[in-house]
Input
Amino acid sequence: MNGDNPVEPFDAIRDLLLTLARGLDVRDIFQQLSIVASRIVPHDEANLAVLTGKDRIRLCATTWGSAAEVLGPERTATIAHADQSRLLDVVPGPERGLQSGLSVPVRIDGSLVGVFALFSRQPLAYSTIDLTHAERLASYLAVALSHQRLAEQARDAAVERERAATIETSMELLRAIADVLDIRTVFPRVSEIANKMLPHEALTMIFDDNGRIVLEASSTSDFPELKPLPLERPLTREHIVGDITVEPVPDAALQSQLVAAGYRSVLGVWANARDQVLNVAFFSRQPHAFGPRDLPVARRIVDHIALAVSHEQLAEAAQQIAEARGRADRLEARVQMLSEELESKTHLRVVGESREWRDVLKKATQVAATDTTVLLTGESGTGKEVVARFIHRASPRSKGPFVALNCAALPEQLLESELFGYERGAFTSAHQAKPGQIELAAGGVLFLDEVSEMSLSAQAKFLRVLQEHEFQRLGGTRILNANIRVIAATNRDLRKAVERGAFREDLFYRLQVFDINIAPLRERSEDILPLSEMFLEEIGRSFGRPPAGLSKDARAAVLAHHWPGNVRELRNALERAAILCDGGLIHAEHLALRAADPSPLLASGSTDLGTIEQETIARALRECRWNKAQAARRLGLTRTKLYLRMKKYGLDKPPLAGH
Output
């Protein structure tokens, strides 16, 4: 088929060799090789397949379609004779019109590496001479494949060396940051190591602080000093790669500073270190020093830096937790010490195991060291005076007096004279001057219980005490100094009292500098049994006999009771039961309690403390058949307090029979 002209094959072989010299990858030049080879062995299609296993062959290059086809088991016959040169009567691709062909082995150093096949749309197109020419073509292809393999091996070796160098540099980088908690201290060293992977003149780390950039670290001292500055536009979290003079950085002023410092190229990568967003930027004084190809290496470096920042944040968080735990432990120890000291000095025991009660004591301990005014809120009988005495004992004023004044126990006209004192002749019965509770509390604490019952006139005068630390006795003109700390208490909602006009708003805010709410006993059931044991010990001592114990049914009864009168009601109930049991065990019948006493709040559906208190008192009076002494004991109130509340709510007269 190739004729008798010997010059043509020689020229074709020369052109073939020139074509092979133009590329290292046979696949890239196979079409051109086929065109040149057709001058030696004419063909309509050329294929080059390489062995991939014992009985599998992969199409490496073809002049038809895709070279991705893998010849499978259906080609086992062809594969079995791949090491022989053959003229093919049966050829693949009849759908493409191919009718004849030939195949020759491709060998490198005597080993079979592939098959070179040529096909024609003419029947019986090839002879043994064409087979000989094809074998020579295959030998040239073998040289090309050998060079390609050498090139691939060289590339693989270079990649492996680069990978090994990268791993070693990464390990060096990890070692540099492993022993420090603050990466800022070794940032120049980090830059030095990173230079081996990505050359640069400066390395920086900035934080995004709510739309402002803050320079956290720089590898060089001559880098522009960046103060926290708001950005002209929001950060996009896109990687920055380009020329600083062309590609805008987040802020024009920053761009000017960088250009003035001689920097021309930047590569910035964003990363997250726990909750902190940071950007690590590589700067070069050479234009176009960075490109997209550098991003993978930059990301690897930045990942190490972000990991170090995360570890730093974790260490800081752990330190903060440890410090908070230490403060909590010291506070708990202080609470325990003060409780024991209060009991030893005043015989007043601070008992309770519930989280709510421990929180109250912790707050009380925290505020005790100051001279801040404290407002104690909570239902009647919850222990507000106990907390007030606890604060006094823990405060710098502990050596001063603790003076308690119940604003609800005195008629309105007597409250002011009791509080401020009076001069002789201030009123008809004022035969001689008398200091008030404010003077008596000098250097110590004045505890105002039920401060919501103070008249508006007294409120106005007392406001001056809190604001100016001075007052006047009734009927006097001399200004006296009020060297006191005020602790107020109320079982009412003072905000609602302010809304009703029953309490001055300015006084309310003066009192509520530091408020502590004491939960009712029903909400801290863990305290009921410890309190019961304490009260029974005190009652036993007062009776001159061992403390009474609670039977199983009595324990169940005290835990099931609602305790509208709170701690005070609990003590009164236990004192009555201790008398009735006559030195034996206290049983449920001695307590005379109703299990699961419904809440006044649930019964009335009201959230107003005044309404709740009114309904509670009315129910207690009904159940005690209007025996005021018995109702007062049940409610944990003194008879004077009960009378005042009955008058306030219009309950001072029993309903008529039949109504």
User: Anything to note?
Assistant: Residues 1-7, 67-78, 595-603 have pLDDT under 50 and may be disordered. The chain has 22 helices and 21 strands.
